[in-house]
Design goal:
The protein has helices spanning 36-46, 109-117, 137-140, 154-158, 160-164, 170-181, 189-196, 210-214, 221-238, and strands spanning 5-12, 22-29, 66-69, 72-75, 89-93, 100-102, 105-106. By secondary structure, the chain is α+β, with helices and mostly antiparallel strands. Strand 6 and strand 7 (105-106) form a beta hairpin.
Amino acid sequence: MAEEEITIKIQRFDPAADKLPYWQSYKVKMKPGMTVLDALFEILNHQDGTLSFRFCCRAGVCGSCAMMIAGKLRLACETQVGQFAWMKELPVSPLPHQKIVKDLAVDYDHFFDRIKQIKPYLIGKEPYPEKEYIQTPKEREPINEPIDCILCGSCTSSCTVAWTNSDYLGPAALMKAYRFYSDTRDIADDERLDIVENESGLFRCHTIFNCVEVCPKKLNPTEAIQKLKIKVAKRKLFGRKKSSRA
């Protein structure tokens, strides 16, 4: 029995050579368990060595292969080609509203610049422990969800506010701020609230929920943003409570 084929229609664009993006189609023989990332490698290795895309872990952990697949933001390494066998052509394009480096690879510089603004690292209280800060299961519970963010950029690429406001921190950065604010080992509560309490931060979110719909890890950046808004409101009413956790 002949192997079934599927046509992968890829948006191509090389800023150094092309004036506008264009679509190019490739036929790929479908195999059991084949992912979209596998199909892209099949094209790269056997049909067109000029195709560009990002990848790393191939296990849904690094977020590098986030792209638009069949009209929805997905991770190419987790998306099975077989589910689109009924389609005449499977369209694949880069993350929307991002600067294209080449083909399916986009420039993440601005995305990570916004992440850096909220100081995405633990600021612990002194004296520092010799090995680790101890945290109980109950203390860790608030960060169980936001800590799973893989920084794929899908939420920010889907955010209509981020499309038109380059200063907006975006859902990924704001959820990262909430992750560290909620961490009982971190002492920079007010410092991070100062960073996000402005019109380029929390109050630019319009609660549209695009970020929730596209997150490949089923996280809820909108909820994290609303919880930070509540923290800001309480601080306005009751003042700054502490500079560190006892």
